[in-house]
Write a structure and sequence with these properties.
This protein has helices at residues 13-16, 21-27, 44-54, 69-86, 102-114, 127-130, 133-136, 149-161, 176-185, 190-209, 232-239, 251-265, 269-281, 286-301, 307-322, 328-340, 346-361, 376-380, 421-432, and strands at residues 34-37, 58-63, 90-95, 118-123, 140-143, 172-174, 228-230. With 442 residues, the chain is of the alpha/beta class. β2 (58-63), α4 (69-86) and β3 (90-95) form a beta-alpha-beta unit. α13 packs antiparallel against α16.
């Protein structure tokens, strides 16, 4: 049932609708290099094939799981011949491009830049984390959304009616409740919806052959001999297990992630572990959750418990070493520790305050005494003159001016009184040893 034309493609109206990004590109006959980012079953591979066809380009498909640099070189060599001898464009489609290592991704760069190939990569992972910045800068990241239940029902109905590519010859009827359950439980994944429908058709055929079938007193029972009815029970049997309400790119995803972070911030380890388990059991990438915990350790626990960041990073490395299912153990350990740890967001507040001054004042001059006088010109300009080396003074500390003149007296870091940061506050007060700063009233 893979669409053969863009007219058959269902979903992604935000990209293919009138006046939208990909539609405008196709109308102009230009196809830029793209990274298609979206959950499984949203049409990334199909869309790549259709886009290549729309611009009259040859499509070369590689799987990042199987291909190496040698395969890339061969594909580029063929694309060069195709361009030079036949005047044809080549679209190189790389499925699961996030699995390419840095060397493989770098091998693509010059050929994308030269226009030898138009790259279309497909990934279920955030390209910002998994694709090299250099390659990202030469491509347009396009986000594919999970299909709506309405779109999934269109695909299911099409498969039921198509006698050549679908189940049109199977004499099937799917009752309304079964359609609704199927569209809901597919969770935006067209592949899952069609695979479930195919499995349900097989179950219905087995039931009919064995005389089981549907309840003859049910309104959903077939009205004609030989008609096979797919009801809710058959759909649920075909699904094997109820899919948790969780969508890696939709509102429920963001809601569960938000509940997880807020439970950590609110110091509730039980809720935090529950929401983490919800994500993991619904198929979320554990590395996504671990990255959120590393960020949380720095943003919300911070210097109130410096070991939090160490433990979060250790959990990340431990997971990479042991994988699933045992990897849930260091993840749980980290989640519990982060939830129970004292909290401080001074890292976030401090950087935000410093960034505000950088934005407002621009590139202020470095005070001359802080510069290195490593050249005759530097010494002539008086660089490093008057600099006081802290290790030459008692306590390895000396009062010195380190900020630009326009920012004298600024205090970006204001320690909290939580956990270990309380000791830092006391030490910093002794080190500063002066009155209110110029921006205390800000």
């Amino acid at each position: 049932m893979r669409p053969a034309t863009l007219a058959e493609f269902v979903g992604q109206e935000h990209l293919l609708g009138p006046g939208k990004l990909l539609r405008r590109a196709l109308q102009g006959g230009a196809l830029p290099s793209l990274i298609l980012w979206g959950p499984p079953g949203t049409g990334k591979t199909t869309l790549a094939r259709l886009l290549a066809g729309e611009v009259g380009a040859s499509l070369v498909a590689l799987s990042a799981v199987m291909a190496g640099v040698k395969d890339l070189r061969e594909a580029v060599a063929e694309a060069t011949v195709r361009r030079d001898q036949r005047g044809l464009r080549t679209v190189l489609f790389v499925d699961e491009i996030h699995r390419f290592n840095k060397a493989q991704q770098d091998a693509l760069l010059p050929h994308v830049e030269a226009g030898t190939i138009t790259l279309i990569g497909a990934t279920t992972e955030n390209p910002s984390f998994e694709v090299n910045a250099a390659l990202l800068s030469r491509t347009k990241v396009v986000v594919l959304r999970p299909l709506t239940e309405e779109s999934l029902r269109v695909l299911v109905d099409r498969a039921l009616l198509d006698p050549e590519r679908g189940l049109g010859r199977a004499n099937l009827r799917v009752d309304e409740e079964a359609r609704r359950v199927l569209a809901r439980e597919a969770r935006g994944d067209a592949r899952r919806a069609l695979a479930t429908l195919e499995a349900a058709a097989a179950v219905a055929e087995e039931a009919a052959a064995g005389g089981g079938g549907a309840d003859p007193t049910s309104p959903a029972s077939p009205a004609a001999p030989g008609l096979r009815v797919i009801d809710r029970a058959i759909i649920e049997e075909s699904l094997q297990r109820k899919t948790l309400l969780y969508d890696k790119a939709g509102d429920e995803h963001h809601g569960v992630v938000s509940a997880f972070i807020k439970s950590l911030r609110g110091s509730d380890p039980d809720a935090a572990v529950y929401w983490m388990a919800r994500m993991l059991e619904a198929g979320e990438d554990p590395l996504f959750i671990l990255r959120r915990m590393v960020i949380f350790a720095a943003e919300d626990v911070g210097l109130a418990e410096p070991r939090a960041l160490q433990l979060a990073v250790a959990a990340l490395e431990a997971f990479r070493f042991v994988g699933m299912p045992e990897g849930t153990l260091p993840m749980t350990e980290a989640a519990v520790f982060l939830a129970v740890a004292p909290k401080s967001n001074t890292a976030l507040v401090t950087y935000t305050a410093a960034r505000a001054d950088v934005t407002e004042h621009g590139a202020l001059a470095v005070p001359p005494h802080l510069r290195n006088a490593s050249t005759p010109l530097g010494r002539e300009l008086g660089w490093a003159e008057g600099y006081q080396y802290p290790h030459d003074h008692a306590g390895h500390h000396v009062h010195e001016v380190y900020l630009p003149e326009a920012l004298l007296g600024r205090r970006y870091y204001r320690p909290s009184a939580e956990g270990a940061e309380k000791d830092l506050a006391a030490r910093l007060g002794a080190l500063r040893g002066d009155g209110p700063s110029d921006d205390d009233e800000r």
